[in-house]
Amino acid sequence: MSNTIRSYRTNTYDYNGMFGHNEDMTLTAFIGHGGPNIQFTIGENFCALAPNQIRDLIITLQNRLECKEGYRATDSTECEEILPLEEMGQ
């Protein structure tokens, strides 16, 4: 079972050619191995996240919007990899 729950139109401004063509993004809710999951689809590419990854993404986006240290474009931090819980042996 799945249900497309959001569709995001992108900003068409390409920042002086830095990013090229922008694709719209949709969010699809579906039931997967660890419970409720969300699939992000951009163009013809998709990424499905597990519940623990979705929670981490929400916190990360909130920290970025609040310009917290370590989340600003000018900061230098290590990229943290967030695995689905089932891959972490939990």
Secondary-structure blueprint of this entry?
Elements: E1 2-8, E2 25-32, E3 35-42, E4 45-49, H1 51-65
Antiparallel strand pairs: 1-2, 2-3, 3-4
Quick rundown:
With 90 residues, the protein is an alpha+beta fold. The chain is 17% helix and 31% strand. It contains one helix and four strands, in the order ββββα.
Distance between the amino and carboxyl termini: 25 Å
Indicate the structural class: alpha+beta
Tell me the number of strands: 4
Largest sheet descriptor: 4 strands, antiparallel
If you average the pLDDT, what whole number results?
A: 84
Helical percent range? 10-25%
**Strand arrangement across the biggest beta sheet:** 1-2-3-4
Number of domains: 1
Please write the string of helix (H) and strand (E) elements. Answer: EEEEH
Radius of gyration using CA atoms only: 15 Å
- Tell me the β content: 25-35%
Low-pLDDT stretches: none
Overall body shape: flat
Number of helices: 1
What would you note in describing this structure?
The protein has 90 residues and is of the alpha+beta class. It has one domain (2-88). The protein is 17% helix and 31% strand. The chain has a 4-stranded antiparallel sheet. A hairpin with a 2-residue loop joins strand 2 and strand 3. The mean pLDDT is 84.
